[in-house]
């Protein structure tokens, strides 16, 4: 039986309504065994954790390793964008050659579409650059707290740009996140490991992530709602825009004097970073497909907790009780916000269904 590939946007809607499971059961004619479904979910969640955590540690190595001594964060980000473009093009060609085996949309350069995506690309560049700069100047253990204000900026920008209000309980959860952020900054300062530059980049990264989500919704129609086409155009635009930035910030000169340009290990790690950057988008969608957006957010919070613990153990750091408290406040506030928004969406959906039924009875 031929199946129509699910778009990421459709997967999100179906997951929110709980219809994904029902759809799958209808297509297969029978429900999958519980153990098989549990195994699939465990594998997908594990894959998401593995790729996400590995990507953070690998980027930290590329950006701030004493053994590497590469002071070119923009070049690292540019190269990862280039790898993503090449992967998108390669998968598109494979899908054309073997349509039944590889499922990937056709991607080709269209200057009109590229110009439509350009505003998002500027925000996208800011997001990935500030993320990497934050990681360069702060430790992996503090990275989660340093860029923890994304949820707060989501609420603020939703009100300023979209005039959407937020419930009291959701605002209370945001207050906990802000408190955890400030306590974390205070404790980093007490331990003498605080980087104000890195913290500023973390705040800017949080703002950029929020703006990226808003602009993504506006730009998606230009690429027919395809996340992968948007990924392709975003990264093509980013590669072009990064070139003058590399010249402006003197990174081309830094690369010219870098002593590992002929190292296969260096380019292998750089390419691996690009592969992880591409893969994180896929496994994120996969985790949402097999669970739900709410479960994905909970999984992301738990992953951040595990990542922090691993970083403290790996780098053999000693942290105070209040430092750990700040992390728990950020993670707890994020989980509470996700839970509150999930309940609100469920309630809104339950209220919408009877209204639609009433309209149907009235013949409207």
Number of domains: 1
Q: Tally the beta strands.
A: 0
- Termini separation: 37 Å
Strand and helix order: HHHHHHHHHHHHHH
Number of helix segments? Answer: 14
The largest sheet, given as strand count, sense and whether it forms a barrel, is:
none
Q: Tell me the helix content.
A: over 70%
The pLDDT mean sits at 84
Give the C-alpha Rg.
22 Å
**What structural category do the secondary elements indicate?**
mainly alpha
Taking pLDDT < 50 over at least 5 consecutive residues as the criterion, the unreliable ranges are: 1-29
Percent range for β-strand residues: under 5%
From the spread of the alpha carbons, the general shape counts as globular
Subcellular location: Membrane
Function: Putative transporter.
Keywords: Membrane, Transmembrane, Transmembrane helix
GO molecular function: GDP-fucose transmembrane transporter activity
């Amino acid at each position: 039986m031929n199946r129509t590939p699910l778009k990421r946007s459709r997967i999100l809607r179906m997951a929110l309504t709980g219809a994904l499971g029902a759809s799958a059961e209808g297509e297969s004619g029978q429900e999958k065994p519980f153990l098989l479904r549990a195994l699939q979910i465990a594998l997908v969640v594990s894959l998401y954790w593995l790729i996400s955590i590995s990507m953070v540690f690998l980027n930290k190595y590329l950006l701030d390793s004493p053994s590497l001594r590469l002071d070119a964060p923009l070049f690292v980000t540019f190269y990862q964008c280039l790898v993503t473009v090449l992967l998108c093009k390669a998968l598109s060609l494979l899908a054309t050659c073997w349509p039944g085996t590889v499922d990937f949309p056709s991607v080709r350069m269209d200057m009109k579409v590229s110009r439509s995506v350009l505003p998002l690309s500027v925000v996208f560049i800011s997001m990935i650059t500030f993320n990497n700069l934050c990681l360069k100047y702060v430790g992996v253990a503090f990275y989660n707290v340093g860029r923890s204000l994304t949820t707060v900026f989501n609420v603020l920008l939703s009100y300023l740009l979209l005039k959407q209000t937020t419930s009291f309980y959701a605002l209370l959860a945001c207050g906990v996140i802000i408190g955890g952020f400030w306590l974390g900054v205070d404790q980093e300062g007490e331990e003498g490991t605080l980087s104000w530059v890195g913290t500023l980049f973390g705040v800017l990264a949080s703002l950029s992530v929020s703006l990226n989500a808003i602009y993504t919704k506006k730009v998606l129609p230009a690429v027919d709602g395809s996340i992968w086409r948007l990924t392709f155009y975003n990264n093509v635009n980013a590669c072009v825009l990064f070139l003058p930035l590399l010249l402006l910030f003197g990174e081309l000169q830094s690369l010219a004097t870098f002593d590992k340009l002929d190292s296969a290990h260096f380019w292998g790690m750089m390419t691996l970073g690009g592969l992880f950057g591409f893969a994180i988008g896929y496994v994120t969608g996969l985790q949402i497909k097999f669970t739900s957006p709410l479960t994905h957010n909970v999984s992301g919070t738990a992953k951040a907790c595990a990542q922090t613990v691993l970083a403290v153990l790996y780098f053999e750091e000693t942290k105070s009780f209040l430092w750990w408290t700040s992390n728990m406040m950020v993670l707890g506030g994020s989980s509470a916000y996700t839970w509150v928004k999930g309940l609100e969406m469920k309630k809104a959906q339950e209220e919408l269904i009877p209204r639609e039924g009433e309209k149907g009875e009235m013949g409207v």
